[in-house]
Design a protein that fits this description.
single chain; globular; 85 residues; alpha+beta; Hypothetical Cytosolic Protein, Chain: A
């Protein structure tokens, strides 16, 4: 059975391999796109579609999920995910 995670954009629960994992690294305090799950820290998930990523940008709920104030770094990461999608 695959791990189920909640999308921070649409709030739907899906298999974690169908979503982007975004992690706030514990040691450095930097935010990374973490597809391999090798980076340790606080993580949040978002669906791999542009609408969910855009909703996450608009709502700014990711900073609360990661418990950080680094909004600029989060916005840059989400913009790069939109381009990739």
């Amino acid at each position: 059975m695959k791990k189920q995670r909640k999308c921070q954009g649409c709030k739907k629960t899906l298999d974690s391999d169908l979503m982007h994992k975004i992690t706030l690294e514990k040691k450095s305090g930097k935010i990374f796109f973490n597809p391999s799950s090798k980076i340790l820290g606080r993580s949040a998930y978002v669906c791999k579609n542009k609408e969910c990523i855009k909703a996450l940008l608009k709502k700014r709920t990711l900073k609360n999920a990661l418990k950080t104030t680094e909004t600029k770094e989060i916005e840059e990461l989400l913009q790069s995910l939109i381009v990739e999608s």
